[in-house]
Amino acid sequence: MPKFAEAYTLRAGAKAAQGDLDAALADANRAIELNPNLREAYDTRGNIKRVKHDLDAALADLDRAVQLGSTSARFYTDRGAAWEEKGAIERALVDLDRAITLDSRYYPAYVVRAEAKRLNRNFEDALKDVTRAIEIDPKKPHAYEIRGHINTTKGDFDNALADCDRAVALDSKRAEAYATRGNVHLSRGDLESAEADFTRAVSINARFASAHASRGIVDMDRGDLERAWADYSRCIELDPKLPRGYNGRGIVNLRNKQFENANADFEFAIRLAPKFAPAYNNRGTVKHVRGDSSEAMKDFTRAIEADRNNVIGYRLRGLIYFEKQQWADALREFRKSTEILPNDQDYGRLFVWVVRSQLGENEAANQELADYFSARPTHAAKDWRTRILSFMIGRVLEKDFCPPENLQSQLSTAGEEWFLVDAIHHQKGNGFERKLNTGRACEAWFYAGIKRLAAGDKRTAIELFKKCLATDQKTFVEFGLAATELNMLGDNQRAGNAPAVRNALQP
Description:
Distance between the termini: 49 Å
Helix content: over 70%
Number of helices: 28
Shape: elongated
């Protein structure tokens, strides 16, 4: 029966490639029944279980494949990929190093090792590995996607886009290439291009769950929570074991103030993946909304324990310290959040400025932020974070940054250049509904207020902080900061506990 076992193994691989995982698993099981020593069958079944997120069972099969074929670079590579997905990066690297020792031209080993090194924040060595993979086979798009991902993490968006464009050119029907390019656009703040690529990805592969999750981020950034809900629900339907779907839907629930539902989604994401740091941060945010900052801090710390390079965890802990007016602790956490990822420093840098202004270090804070802005990687021209930073260093005037007094009359004529409305267009038949993006307005009024306060204009600062609170955007960092500032200024308006959510969340 050996030949029949091999046939079932081959058919299992073909069915897995088509997305029919249950049928693929049945064929792999049959192959092993026919030949319990067929190493390829264990490897194939292990990879199917990886895709199904059953990593412990996958590793058991991949261990058996390695035992039966200890000189195969392929089997060590596949087991290394499983360890990587489980979060055991060092164990993954041991397997991947062994694979490359066995076959120095084995393309997949370099690609997987590059991703493991990226997760370990070893960007330069990651780039060397993926570039070596491209040298071995320059016509495979996957390596270009990985290199684009690494360059995005580094903040090198131009090279990231060039790699993703190359991946699309090599295979214009590869959904993963469009999804990777969409993530580059998303990191740059180019929501329109990101949406186009994610939509193209799901049109090519209707069962591409993670592309729906990524498009959900675009939906939320545009304020379209209804569509975000639909995208995350579709993600969960397609892959009920993918924690991103529940985490994203939880964020939508949180922004809709459905706290019980949000907490349930975050809890389920944690049960699926106990080392999934974003869900701990978001669950902690729910606790903070409910006034339990002590338990919230525990969850933020758990996120950092799950991922020592978790930017958001440090940022959230800093905001707890800020509320307690523990400036040195807050500054330490915010600074730490800026040291981890080159492409995710903007809000951390802004919070460093805010704390330094509390310490009376205005001039030094201004210079530090200006130096950062000058050296900052290029973002999209209409990126909101760029707009905030430009205002804070004096390149944009307050009157051009905050919503105008005659708001309603300007909404109907606002052009695409007005940052406070352009991300919130909703299609209505053949036209668009234009309305104020209250989340961005909340941020604008807070940063305008904090600049006024640093300049000694407490009266105007209080007015601006009150406008921030009037947006009722309780799931925005700046709402909570404005409430804290009003409390410190002795104003009688109180907002209760307001969490750091929107720009401190990890979808």
